[in-house]
Specification:
The protein is mostly helical. Helices cover 72% and strands 5% of the residues. It has a 3-stranded antiparallel beta sheet, sandwiched between helices. Strand 2 and strand 3 form a beta hairpin.
Length: 299
């Protein structure tokens, strides 16, 4: 399934969608891509249906044109990953196509039921804020056309009640699409806030894992990491690493005679004095264990 999605989206778009840095953007991109792809296939199906089965050439041509437009939008999204322009482009296409479809179909075999898909598409393409504007324009066009064709559509059986039902249906599906998008936005916002908190906690945890709890100097583990990193950096260089080792004289005897609390205080005072001499941003001081301190002073 994952490989199929990768092929559909393309490498760059798949990597953008797979990134968890912005889940709301990733969800919108994936949703827009899938909706356009599915809608494109539906339009191609319509074209084949009307061309070979109903032999309705105007509807077949309109479906083919819509499929081509959606294909262009899909390719543009794969190339640029710009969901904003793609959403507007696709929304304009459906706002133009479906009124044409309604005019040509005239609710033959309940064909106008497809009009209720538009609110979901407009919201999926742009989010409910911008999508509602497209839905408003679309509804005005559709309802005007439906009112003007009372007694014409549906072999003359289209009535004022039919127009009212169409209006209520559009309002209901618009409300559903809006509620779903608002709920999804709220959920994604909570996910983003939770991720920010987790990033803060992880940052603190990472820092704690490199700090000696007693002296607030870097610990032996961080010394090993820094040493390995610096050795790799200087692998093909003639430069040298500079370290100073400070070993507190008679620290064990002091610790045994005055107690561990006094020994800890002595270590803290030594650490504070050493930090006073750290003048450069790349100076690092590590507690190696016991009363031994290591000072890295660069290349």
């Amino acid at each position: 399934m994952k490989d199929w999605v990768r092929k559909l989206l393309g490498k760059d778009l798949f990597n953008a969608v797979s990134s968890l840095e912005n889940p709301r953007h990733a969800f919108r991109t994936l949703l827009l891509t899938m909706v356009i792809a599915v809608l494109d296939l539906v339009m191609l199906g319509f074209a084949l249906l009307h061309y070979f089965y109903t032999q309705d050439m105007p509807l077949a041509i309109a479906s083919i044109v819509a499929a081509l437009v959606l294909s262009v939008a899909f390719l543009y999204l794969r190339t640029t990953q710009n969901i904003s322009i793609t959403g507007h482009f696709s929304s304009v296409a459906i706002v133009i196509f479906f009124p044409i479809y309604a005019h040509l179909n005239q609710n033959d075999q309940f064909g106008l039921i497809w009009l209720f898909v538009v609110p979901f598409l407009a919201v999926a393409f742009n989010g409910y804020r911008i999508g509602l504007a497209y839905i408003l324009v679309y509804s005005v066009v559709i309802m005007s056309e439906a009112h003007l064709n009372i007694g014409v559509w549906e072999a003359g059986n289209w009535t004022h009640l039919s127009t009212l039902r169409l209006l209520v249906g559009l309002l209901v599906f618009t409300a559903l699409a809006t509620v779903l998008d608002v709920a999804n936005e709220h959920l994604n916002r909570r996910i983003e806030n939770q991720r920010r908190k987790e990033d803060v906690y992880l940052s603190k945890l990472k820092k704690l894992s490199t700090i000696d709890g007693l002296t607030s100097l870097y610990n032996r583990r961080h010394f090993n990491d820094v040493l390995n990193q610096k050795v790799k950096e200087l692998k093909d260089s003639d430069l040298y690493l500079t370290f100073f080792i400070l070993d507190i004289d008679h620290f064990k005897h002091y610790n045994d005679h005055y107690g561990h609390q006094k020994g800890d205080q002595a270590l803290q005072r030594v650490a504070a004095v050493v930090r006073q001499f750290m003048k450069r941003h790349h100076d690092l001081v590590f507690r190696m264990g016991g009363g031994r301190v290591c000072w890295y002073s660069g290349f």
